[in-house]
Amino acid sequence: IWPGIDVQVVVADALACEYDQIRLDIGLAIPPQAVPRVATSETLVEIFGEGAFDIVHCSNSLDHAYDPLLGVEQMLRVVKLGRPVLLQHSVNE
Fold first, then answer.
1. Which residues contact 17 (CB under 8 A, 6 or more apart)?
2. CA-closest candidate to residue 57, choices 90, 88, 18, 35
3. If residue 22 lies in a helix (H) or strand (E), which one and from where to where?
4. Rounded-to-integer distance, Cα 61 and Cα 25, Å
5. Whether residue 79 has pLDDT greater than 80
6. DSSP string, 42-84
7. What count of Cα atoms within 13 Å lies in the side-chain half-sphere of residue 5?
8. In angstroms, what CA-CA distances link 21 with 10, 14, 28, 40, 74?
9. Over the range 8-43, which residues count as b (16 or more CB within 10 Å of their CB) and which as e?
């Protein structure tokens, strides 16, 4: 997409283990970089460290968090200073 620029995408989900098992059960192969890491929004700093990302994107997941405000705080801590945190959520999804 951006010539000469490597982009690394890190996928994280609290249910990553369950999704991995479903994927194995149905024989779905995906590239290793697309396999989600187990992480809750409340433990992002513990797992990834502070300032680990250039951008953070969260889509329709904060309503499943134990502590959504802590999740937002964690996102702000794992993104590099001054970089964006994108929250994308739908009503009743």
1. 38
2. 88
3. helix 16-26
4. 25
5. yes
6. GGHHHHH-TT-BS-EEEES-GGG-S-HHHHHHHHHHHBPTT--
7. 5
8. 19, 14, 10, 18, 27
9. eeeebbbeeeeeeeeeeeeeeeeeeeeebeebbbbe
pTM here is 0.84
In the numeric block, which tokens belong to residue 74? 């964690």
Cα–Cα nearest to 43, from 92, 9, 4, 78:
78
For residue 60, is pLDDT > 80? Answer: yes
Cβ neighbours for 84, distance < 8 A, ≥ 6 positions apart: 55, 56
pLDDT one-digit tens code per residue, 12-44: 989 889 988 999 999 998 888 888 899 999 999
The residues, ordered by sequence, that sit 6+ positions from 74 with a Cβ below 8 Å of its Cβ are 41, 42, 43, 44, 45
Cα 32 from Cα 37, distance rounded (Å): 11
